[in-house]
Design goal:
Elements (H helix, E strand, L loop, with lengths): L3 H18 L55 E5 L5 H10 L4 E6 L2 H14 L4 E5 L12 E7 L8 H11 E15 L4 H4 L2 H5 L8 H10 L3 E10 L4 H4 L5 H10 L2 E10 L2
Parallel strand pairs: 1-2, 1-4, 2-3, 4-5
Antiparallel strand pairs: 5-7, 6-7
């Protein structure tokens, strides 16, 4: 079993590679040492029609459209966790307008650099990209109106710490809206241990009920799921990590990989 630090390093290296490749992570750019590939874009939703969309910032790494359900208002201070190249941050900035502020937090230097280049091109002076760990955010208490995140929290090894930190930095009366991957049932052990599926947001996902329980335990209220969709991973991808017999049993098990968009408030 890998330690939390080892898991973080696996994630950091993979997302650094994606940032440096300067393309969305589909097909062979997501190859693993074993030869198996994972197309990270199979989970993503279409951003192209959203106001504020920036093609250079869209790496196809999400699993939802959290800004669509986040209730962001003009003048808000918004925090985007795992901001990558800035895709969701720039959508949020269009909503908060010049009187608001958007802060993107990411722990990958290469992603931060890419996001800052994109921001400079746009000329935004109220969007900031900051390096930091979601489990220990470099952000003051009760300073954020809305947190958004897109297919990132499942990559965080200690989700208790992540949601505790989210509760700490959100203002009273504020809220979060995150799109994330959760599981109904139990993944086969080989899928749980596959690094490529971890960075692809599958192996790091926890059970849906456990996910919602953590949110409640940290003090958030009025939790709801405005959108949920089943993620279907092609057989050829799964066979890179499990045998045909394991795949057959997996399909019979009824286990579901789900993309959920979750909203909850801080009292």
């Amino acid at each position: 079993m890998e330690t939390n630090l080892e898991i973080k390093e696996v994630v950091r290296k993979k997302y650094a590679e994606i940032a440096i490749s300067n393309q969305d992570c589909s097909g062979s750019c997501c190859g693993t040492d074993s030869g198996a590939t994972f197309d990270y874009t199979i989970m993503s939703d279409d951003y192209t029609k959203l106001d504020g969309y920036v093609p250079d910032a869209d790496l196809g790494l999400g699993c939802g459209l959290p800004t669509e359900y986040a209730g962001i208002e003009e003048g808000n201070t918004v925090l985007d966790l795992g901001s990558g190249a800035g895709n969701d941050a720039f959508i949020a900035r269009r909503i908060v307008a010049s009187t608001g502020k958007v802060l993107g937090l990411d722990f990958t230097d290469e992603m931060i650099a890419k996001a800052r280049i994109n921001c400079d091109k746009l000329g935004y002076n109220n969007v900031e990209f900051r390096k930091g760990d979601i489990e220990n955010m470099p952000i003051n208490d009760s300073t954020i109106d809305v947190i958004i995140s897109n297919c990132v929290l499942n990559l965080v090894p200690d989700k208790d710490k992540a949601f505790s930190e989210m509760f700490r930095v959100i203002k009273s009366g504020g809220h979060f809206c995150v799109s994330d991957i959760v599981i109904n049932g139990d993944l086969p052990d080989n899928l749980k241990s596959a690094a490529a599926l971890y960075t692809g947001c599958v192996s790091g996902a926890i059970k849906k009920d456990e996910y919602l329980n953590i949110i409640a335990q940290k003090g958030f209220v009025n939790t709801n799921i405005p959108k949920q969709k089943k993620i279907l991973i092609p057989d050829e991808i799964l066979l890179g990590f499990i045998s045909r017999e394991e795949l057959k049993n997996f399909k019979k098990s009824g286990v579901e990989i789900l993309s959920v968009t979750v909203v909850a408030e801080k009292p």
